[in-house]
Amino acid sequence: MGLKGRVIRSGRAKGEALVSREPISFFGCIDPSSGIITEKGHELEGECIKDKILVFPHGKGSTVGSYALYRLKKNSAAPRAIINEECEPIVAVGAIISDIPCVDKIDIKKIKTGDRIEIEGNKVKINE
Amino acid sequence: MELTKREKLMLKGNEGEGVQKAMEILVTLAEIYNARKMVEIKSAQVAGVSYKNLGDAGLEFLEEWAEEGAKVKVPTTLNPAGMDLKNWKKLGIPEEFAKKQLMVVKAYEKMGAKPTCTCTPYLVGNLPTFGDHIAWSESSAVCYANSVIGARTNREGGPSALAAAIAGRTPLYGYHLDENRKGKFLIEVECKLDKISDFGALGYLVGKKIGNSVPYFKGIQKADSDQLKALGAAMAASGAVALFHVKEITPEAKLHNTVSESAETIVIDSLKEAYRELNAETGEIDFVAIGCPHASLAEIEQIADLLKGQEVRAKLWITTSSEVKEMAKRKSLLEKIEKSGANIVADTCMIVAPIKEMGLKNMATNAGKAAFYAPAHCGVNVRFGSLDKCIEAAVTGRW
Questions:
Q1: Of A95, A67, A61, A93, which Cα lies nearest the Cα of A79?
Q2: The CATH fold of domain A2-126
Q3: Catalytic residue among A62, A66, A76, A98
């Protein structure tokens, strides 16, 4: 299945989807050295975002989150790409400064954890 | 979107890597918010200065951006840091934290920002005029600039405000445009507002009710700039208010009709709910924090008057900018306050300093914003009330 969205940060990436139905904060809620989600009660608590195609509706929390995404990238613990329903400035700025491909305006209900995802520009291929 | 010839070249990298990165950020934000073009800005206020919030990630990023030759194109001031840049040792800030904090400020200075480290840049020379386009972060300063001064800014985050400073422009959308500046809620205030804490309490209630909308206040008889500062700061914290109008007091409300026809009315006839929700049960006080947003000279004068030389039992911090602290020194207020055992602390505040690590547990404040943030962000119990009560608590150690 193929979907088309809007490019926030252009690039190519391939990997396994990790899907959250809840928003994600990169500041204070993800361990910066391992990429493990530490937010208490989050549906992905304990999961690792490293090298995944991270799929979530939109970001939340402090704007310092942009820098936190950059830190993950520096520590090789960042996701390979990000897919959002509606990207907001925290994630957008984080994706740009960390050079992580990012696409939004995607119906994320069509993606589930474990799907094989391929991203190129604004195109998202699922299990093709 | 339409970019000028120069903006296109900036985006291509003709003015260096640092500027290119700034333009990439701004163009993407412009696309997200459907901005048609960029607008040149007069000044910037950059958040993301405290090492407590930035961590090594932020520090590394800022150093790298400075290394790429990024320089601000407009007067740019900084938000509070995690400590007094000069007197951190005296205040008990850990050495490792201090080292990293000074590196953060140095990276910003390399880019040309002024190390003001205050949330009240408008009190220390970064003062826009009516109608100016600016790119400010620090939610309380955004609220003050838009509402009390009548300048125009969105609620920028740290990185986007810095990008705007480096590029000298910001996407034209949101509060930069007339059509988004009208009051969408009519707030009828039917209770008495006296102390600064009352304005903070009102702001807390309204912010919680209206989120990121624009309130128009009716029924506020008078308000000075310190009270408006407290009102805006609390609304920006409990909600995400970036702009408010007060009938016959704020500039745009004086000039023309600033209420939408479809505005919904909310009546506030008591502040009790706010005082109840912002107060913990604690009777012991080991820390009293005044100056959120940073105290003005007038507020410091009031504190010196209330202290009347009495010795404080709890730690009393009056947080302000280094410039206002200097003025307090000239007026001998600093001497008077220090004689009581209290501190005028520059460059930082109770929210961004490592309060918990300093072993403090029960905090009193007269600031609605600080009362809202401190329990979650600093892990302390909070007592919220008037300045008189806070100073009394500092002297007795009790609430």
A1: A95
A2: Glucose Oxidase; domain 1 (3.50.30)
A3: A62
